[in-house]
Amino acid sequence: MGLFDSLRKMFAAPEPEAGPAPAAPPPPAPPHGVDYDDERVPAPARKKIDAILAALEEVGTMMDREQVQAVSRTEIELMRDEHLPKLVKSYIDIPPAHRAEIFRKTGKSASFILEESLDTMKGRIDEIARNLAQHDLDAFSSNAAFISRRYSDGDPFR
Fold first, then answer.
1. Can you give the pTM of this predicted structure?
2. d(CA 73, CA 65)
3. How far from chain centre, in Å, is Cα 4?
4. CB burial readout 48-82, b (16+ within 10 A) else e
5. What is the pLDDT of residues 9-57, one digit of tens each?
6. pLDDT single digits (tens) 100-118
7. How many Cβ atoms sit within 10 Å of the Cβ of residue 154?
8. What residues contact 151, with CB distance under 8 A and at least 6 apart?
9. What is the CA radius of gyration of the chain?
10. 53, 36 in Cβ contact below 8 A?
């Protein structure tokens, strides 16, 4: 081994040791750290949350195949990524011993207000879905009317 080889070895960075393979990335955390199946969320509210999540997915699919205004798309994304998780997390975070304060202030229980808020959100999602579906309904009606006119026995212009 020559002088240059000895110097190169002396000043070279040490060879990395083979270690364990890098760990797989952790699964994505739920939005805002919210577990929608948390037992502190009342069962009727969990059913409504499931319905909302399914409706949001359905509307997202409808939006992907239609030309949709950015406002509607943004509203759906905000509901899914911000509003729903924050609503549920804020409910979960109320210490059970203090939930009665909400009833004293509003005359409604926290769980009632949660479900009422979920119903309001679901109503808005359903409205957006109806608006998106209207294009398909109009196209179907138009095509059915054309077929009826084109192929009916009473049409003299066939």
1. 0.69
2. 12
3. 62
4. bbeebeebbeebeebbeeeebeeeeeebbeebbee
5. 666 656 556 556 566 665 555 556 789 999 999 999 999 999 999 999 9
6. 899 999 999 999 999 999 9
7. 6
8. 158
9. 29
10. yes
